[in-house]
User: Fold this.
Amino acid sequence: MLKVYCILVASLAGIWAADYEMILEDPDVFSPCTEPPPGSVGVKGLLNLDNLVTSQDSETIHISENVSTTWEVEPTDRISARIAMMHFNRGTWEPTVFSVATPDFCSVMFNEDQYWYKYWTKHIINREEAEKNCLRVPGTILAHKPFDVQLLVTNIRGATLHGRYKAVVTFEAIDEKNAPRPNTICFEIRGEVEKL
Assistant:
């Protein structure tokens, strides 16, 4: 009886799960944070995007070439990273249950189980240099093989997602005394979420 119940629950959970796609608002992909931490800078404070080639068709972002780091932090700093999804509801951005955070980004940037890896760092071809310098050494080249990104989330259970969402991305450098540096990086990726 318990086995039948478990199979039934698993089957229903699969039926109730849904897949979603985010259609970007900004063709440049990255937008400034609407409520940035004091002293923070946008994506250009982290990366020089001048050599990055991006194009977009209906649901795919095509990316190639490279970026170089511009963040003025110490090579010994620990980098914490976070992505928090927010939903626009009745004129206000509200937090959702969807977030990803790591207290030490550099130690997991090439970990295959991390979202950072699945959507970005697995496409970096000069892994040895990127792993050694991470985002901490200005001028470090992060060379990419051409890749495509679809902003998909799959197998989501619970309430139906709809409307405007944004991913708020923050990187924070933590010094050797465990104190955050004042030049936090904050940028957003905004779009409309549609059920597939």
Remarks:
- The domain at 17-195 is CATH 2.70.220 (Ganglioside M2 Activator Protein; Chain: A,).
- The helical segments are 2-16, 105-108, 115-119, 127-133.
- Confidence is low (pLDDT under 50) at residues 1-14.
- The chain has four helices and eleven strands.
